Amino acid sequence: MFFAVIALSRVAIVGAGFVGSSFAYALMIRGITSEIVFIDIDKKRAEGEALDLNHGLSFVRPVKICAGDYSDCETADIVVISAGTTQKPGQSRLALTHSNFEIMKQIVPQVTRYNSECIFLIATNPVDVMTYAVLKLSGFPARKVVGSGTILDTSRFRYVLAEHLKIDPRNVHAYIIGEHGDSEVPVWSLANVAGTRLREYCPLCGEKYDMKFLNSIFQKVKTAAYEIIELKGRTYYAIGLGLTRIVESILRNENAILTVSSLIQDYYGISDVCLSVPSIINREGIADILRLSLEENEVELLHKSAEVLKKTINSLEFP
Ligand code: NAD
Fold it and tell me: Tens digits of per-residue pLDDT, 270-308?
């Protein structure tokens, strides 16, 4: 059954830059799709990435990797968009809005010309705003337009907490919700280890659960991208793995719970904006959005995050 699923799957990647190629590398190693196609305005770059990856095929499960054009989206199950401009040191993700919106306006109609059934997965920043843009530009149902959202921030959160608590990050259950950006929200009230709320778990392993502890952890998570961009110019490996995890959940119909960005309606009074909350992901895309029991201050922060995104979305001029 598993082989029947992967035998038919094609993932098209529009944008063969650092993010697109790191994602393809992780996807190839994971062995969960049978075809990967790179599409890029820079055809040479797409061809080079495909060739480089093809030279590793003797070490992984069979997968066909090539450079192509938009007609290759026709049989794609998932079209991943990682094309666009990147943050300069110190620049916010929201500063990329208008340049990357222009790029979405070029890409989306070329994909939908060939395929009206695929799932769009967006990584381009500011990812929540671009997810909303792709949703409107494609006219696709909301469940089929998924942004990588805070999957990366949640992973950073779990890593930083795990480092402090000296446990495996996979055993830390904690989410970052809202914008993938400066207004993101840590859900401290529901964070837990082995079913034990963090505020009870911390004393068990000799850590203080106080504002100083919480602020120091969240600060590291929130500024992680700025720090990496300052150090090496870009971030790409962890988002490559995050995108692979989302694709895996879609292609294998897993019903995995991941913090991805999608259209939110009537969520603590928030509507008509794309942002992240834990969502169930399967072959249909977004199967459901979880209604978390948030504390009052967390709801307030989520509202502020939604406002930041709405203001940016309202500045877009759709064709
Ligand atoms: P990059 O410059 O290495 O690659 C971008 C690619 O997009 C280039 O190959 C370029 O030729 C291509 N491109 C530009 N315009 C295009 C168009 N109209 N059609 C097709 N291709 C086009 O950049 P990168 O480091 O790969 O980053 C890509 C995007 O991903 C950025 O917006 C970045 O901010 C974002 N990003 C998101 C996350 C996340 O968590 N969602 C993490 C890291 C980076």
Answer: 999 999 999 999 999 999 999 999 999 999 999 999 999
**Is the CB of 87 within 6 Å of ligand 1?**
yes
Task: Give percent of the chain with pLDDT exceeding 90.
Answer: 92
Query: 136 vs 116, 190, 211, 288, CA distance in Å?
Result: 14, 33, 40, 20
Task: Answer whether 192's CB lies under 8 Å from 201's CB.
Answer: yes
- Could you read off the pLDDT of 137-146 as tens digits, one per residue? 999 999 999 9
Pair 198, 218: CB distance under 8 Å: no
Is 234 near ligand 1, meaning CB less than 6 Å away? yes
Q: Which of 22, 41, 91, 156 to mutate to test the pocket of ligand 1 (most atoms within 8 A of CB)?
A: 41
- Render the burial of 165-192: b for 16+ CB within 10 Å, e for the rest: beeebeebbbbbbbbbbebbbbbbbbbb
The sign of the CA dihedral 130, 136, 137, 138 is positive
Which residue ranges make up each domain of the chain? Answer: 10-147, 151-313
Q: What is the topology classification, in CATH, of domain 151-313?
A: L-2-Hydroxyisocaproate Dehydrogenase; Chain A, domain 2 (3.90.110)
Rounded distance from Cα 70 to ligand 1 centre (Å):
17
Which CATH architecture does the domain made up of 10-147 adopt?
3-Layer(aba) Sandwich (3.40)
CA distances to 19, 132, 170, 240 from 235, rounded to whole Å, are 8, 23, 21, 9
Q: Which atom of ligand 1 is nearest to the CA of 152?
A: 40
Tens digits of residue pLDDT in 177-209? 999 999 999 999 999 999 999 999 999 988 889
Claim: this prediction has a pTM higher than 0.85: yes
